[in-house]
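Sequence design from tokenized structure. All designs in this work follow the same two-part layout: the structure record, then the generated sequence. An example of the structure record is given first.
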């Protein structure tokens, strides 16, 4: 993949790139409708493909929060047309990397020395490149190391990038601006945290230590003396990303072992620590033939407020949800129904939420669950499509759901997606959760 020799860091220059891309997207729409006049059978697939390529080309060169939003969108299979989700998924670990001189410059600016002065060996070619930073392989004192380097200008451009990318997100997703305003504040706060490598280093050491007892998880050691506000040095972990791992045709036993480790990892964090690794895309996990999982990126961590936690997981209690008054109270606490809703709106949206909750929480209500059950996921996607196309939902002027639900829902969606791809058959009952909370 071709390396980048520079990244636009100024607000004006970055905004200019978005404007240019917007013009390209507009031209694509004009071309599409011109073709459709000639041939009414033409679908929007080609339009989506052209737009996805143009938008991704811009985002991947700008890096930072704009590319991170694309990465987040790519994880929701029901949110984007396939062309967008497939193209944006490349941002998880396959964005264009920075060139060698920019890498060296980052070291000199933040650690006062070049990579050659700090390590016994440093591979100038990036092993992986994503939205916020890229990873290089190195060695020191006989240890193989992974060195994560943040792209220039990322931290300073979060707010301005999100303001610029929001119109693209509104147009692509079809979500109204009220919803975007509510949740973009949450996205902004998490992205600012992700650019704070000192915070990430602290969280990585803390959460790795507290989750070390969970079977079949492997965490790297971290090296503060070789880290800075834009560099993190840790042990190199061997393994494959999900897509490459599945291509090796692992046994069902190994799939189940990995799936169980991932489930236990997330359940322990949510229920015991009340803080969770909230970036569960495949680029953050390395899967191994022995059924172990390497976890190495704690840049995005969601701390779960106690009142939100209590109400959120009451939704998994079938007995509680049988009580209509109690159910409405929970929906109100979670901002799923709004104080200004009419009784008709409350009944309508409560009915939608009750069915969605029944589907999504099913794995929590049984002792064991087979995530390879395609009928289960097809039912979820079909229901999501049905809800998205309802006139009442599309015309709703109220953002439904607490801002805290954004990253928690994203976490469970990402977990479900990985478990589905693994076709893992695992223990999901409450007894197993409690066993890790002793």
């Amino acid at each position: 993949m071709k390396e980048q020799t520079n990244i636009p860091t100024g607000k004006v220059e970055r905004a200019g790139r978005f404007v240019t891309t917007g013009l390209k997207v507009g031209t694509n729409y004009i071309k599409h409708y011109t073709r459709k006049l000639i041939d009414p059978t033409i679908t929007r697939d080609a339009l989506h493909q052209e737009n996805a390529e143009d938008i991704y080309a811009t985002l991947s060169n700008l890096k930072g929060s704009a590319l991170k939003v694309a990465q987040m969108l790519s994880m929701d299979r029901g949110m984007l047309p396939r062309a967008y989700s497939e193209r944006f998924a490349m941002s998880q670990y396959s964005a264009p990397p920075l060139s060698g001189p920019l890498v060296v410059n980052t070291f000199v600016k933040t650690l006062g020395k070049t990579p050659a002065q700090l390590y016994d060996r440093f591979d100038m070619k990036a092993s992986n490149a994503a939205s916020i930073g890229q990873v290089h392989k190195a060695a020191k004192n006989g240890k193989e190391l992974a060195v994560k380097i943040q792209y220039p200008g990322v931290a300073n451009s979060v707010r301005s990038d999100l303001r610029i990318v929001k119109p693209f997100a509104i147009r692509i997703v079809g979500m109204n601006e009220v919803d975007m305003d509510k949740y973009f504040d949450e996205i902004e706060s998490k992205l600012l945290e992700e650019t704070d490598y000192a915070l990430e280093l602290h969280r990585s050491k803390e959460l790795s230590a507290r989750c070390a007892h969970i079977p079949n998880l492997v965490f790297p050691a971290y090296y503060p003396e070789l880290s800075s506000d834009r560099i993190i040095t840790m042990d190199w972990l061997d393994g494959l990303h999900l897509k490459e791992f599945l291509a090796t045709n692992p046994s069902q036993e190994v799939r189940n072992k990995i799936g169980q480790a991932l489930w236990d990892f997330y359940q322990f964090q949510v229920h015991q620590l009340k803080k969770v690794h909230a970036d569960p895309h495949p680029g953050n996990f390395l899967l191994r033939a022995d059924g172990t999982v390497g976890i190495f990126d704690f840049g995005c961590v969601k701390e779960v407020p106690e009142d939100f936690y209590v109400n959120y997981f009451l939704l998994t209690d079938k007995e509680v949800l049988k009580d209509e008054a109690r159910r409405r109270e929970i929906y109100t606490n979670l901002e799923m129904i709004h104080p200004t809703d009419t009784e008709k709106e409350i009944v309508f949206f409560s009915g939608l939420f009750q069915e969605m909750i029944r589907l999504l929480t099913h794995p929590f209500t049984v002792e064991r669950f087979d995530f390879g059950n395609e009928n289960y996921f097809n039912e979820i996607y079909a229901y999501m499509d049905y809800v998205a196309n309802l006139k009442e939902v599309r015309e709703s002027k109220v953002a439904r759901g607490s801002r805290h639900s954004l990253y928690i829902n994203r976490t469970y969606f990402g977990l479900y997606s990985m478990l589905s791809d693994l076709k893992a058959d695992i223990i999901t009952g409450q007894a197993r959760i409690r066993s890790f909370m002793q």
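The radius of gyration is 22 Å. We note this feature because it recurs in several other targets discussed in the main text.
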